[in-house]
Write a structure and sequence with these properties.
Keywords: Pyridoxal phosphate. The chain has 14 helices and 13 strands. The protein has about 400 residues and is of the alpha/beta class. It has a domain of about 180 residues: Type I PLP-dependent aspartate aminotransferase-like (Major domain) (Aspartate Aminotransferase, domain 2, 3-Layer(aba) Sandwich), CATH 3.40.640.10.
């Protein structure tokens, strides 16, 4: 099986964290420089950072965002007492379409959550203008946006609050970032996070063990470990079959004080991470070139530079779940929107969250045929060519 992802875990890097000093300051300074924000708070995850964002602004109402996303990115909106208004996506890069927002804004609108998708940034200039014109708060979800550029300006620098994940496309074992220029919001977020419990040691060990097994290609043991966890979570969700209860559980496990290990591990691996991102971009571009004449449709943008956090594609000949099953039989671990173990396909979010049912033309064309292709940097040239060959065969 060609694995979807590798965290590139290194025992040597983990040992280096013992001698890493002032990691929190170094991490905060790095993101201050990256985003141009005055205040940076290290969190346990991007999900936690988004929750702190909504809690710190102390406004309740409607948040405008994209429906083409992993559902966990929406949990902070609901948990903070807000409602979701989905706006359709653009045809080219599949991020939120700014042109659909003004007509949907009401007196209850309080914010826009701009979700960068697959490494492609949203049209942040347009979103910034809309937010300014209608006095909305712009929250930038950079979980899949690290290293991408919108009109030569790096992602994370546009939002009133910008939130990052240190795990999604940065190969960490945990952690997130909350960045803002608003001192009041920063202080509130910091105070709220101080009330969170500490991460349990066995959970930190579980993260380290999972990363080590996956990086060492010990897939059988890794899958057993993940299956045990999946069964436990499934039973828990069955006992709490109300979706709001499930959402509460999914979010609550992220609302913890971030262990120092997360910051140290990021700092000692930063240069390695940047090299891996460059390699991931090269693999993505090669796959796109090789599949250029097939039936696969890829994200594209004339003005933006993608970091290819994910390589999403659409094949209109197949429903997502069917194509994912076929490709997994062929030995390729493809995904849909949710990258959880045991979940091949994420159902449309609109029936679960939407407050105003309407047509979503572009979203409807994309969602059920979406496929996320592995960009595992550990792939040999032989495995990469094999994967491209299989994808071509399925995309003729």
């Amino acid at each position: 099986m060609i694995p979807y992802y590798s965290p590139h875990f290194s025992v040597a890097d983990l040992l280096k964290t013992i001698f890493c000093k002032n990691a929190e300051d170094k991490l905060c300074n790095y993101f201050k420089k990256l985003t141009g924000k005055k205040y940076v708070l290290i969190t346990s995850s991007c999900r936690s950072a988004l929750y702190l964002a909504y809690q710190s602004i102390e406004k309740k109402g409607i948040v405008h965002t994209s429906p083409l996303t992993c559902k966990v990115s929406l949990l902070p909106i609901i948990a903070s007492g807000n409602q979701i208004y989905f706006n359709d996506i653009k045809k080219d890069d599949w991020t939120i379409d700014p042109s659909t927002i003004p007509a949907s804004i009401s007196k209850k609108s309080v914010a826009i959550q701009a979700i960068h998708f697959g490494g492609f940034p949203c049209d942040m200039r347009s979103l910034r203008k809309i937010a300014n014109d209608y006095k909305l708060i712009l929250i930038e979800d950079c979980a899949q946006g690290f290293g991408s550029f919108n009109n030569k300006i790096i992602s994370g620098s546009f939002g009133d609050i910008s939130c990052f994940s240190l795990t999604k496309n940065l190969y960490g074992i945990g952690g997130g970032i909350f960045a803002t220029n608003n001192e009041e919001w920063f202080n509130k977020a910091q105070k709220i996070q101080m009330s969170f419990p500490r991460e349990k040691y066995y959970k930190i060990f579980y993260r380290i063990l999972s990363s080590a097994l996956l990086s060492s290609n010990l897939f059988i043991i890794y899958n057993v470990l993940k299956k045990i966890n999946y069964i436990y979570v499934s039973i828990y969700h069955h006992l709490n079959n109300n979706i709001k209860n499930q959402m509460s559980v999914e979010l609550r496990k992220e609302l913890i004080k971030p262990p120092r290990l997360y910051s140290k591990y990021f700092v000692v691996r930063l240069q390695k991470m940047l090299k891996l991102i460059d390699k991931r971009k090269s693999i993505a571009n090669l796959i796109k070139i090789q599949l250029n004449k097939s039936k696969y449709i890829f994200q594209y943008s004339d003005n933006n530079i993608s970091s290819y956090a994910k390589l999403y594609t659409v094949n209109q000949d197949y429903q997502s779940v069917n194509l994912i099953r076929l490709l997994r039989k062929d030995g390729i671990e493809c995904m849909h929107l949710s990258h959880k173990f045991g979940e091949l396909y994420q159902k449309k979010l609109i029936p679960q969250f939407e407050i105003d049912r309407k047509a979503y033309k572009n979203y409807s064309l994309i969602h059920d045929n979406l496929l996320s292709i592995p960009l595992n940097e550990s792939m040999t040239a032989e495995l990469l060519n094999k994967m491209i060959s299989i994808l071509k065969r399925r995309g003729i």
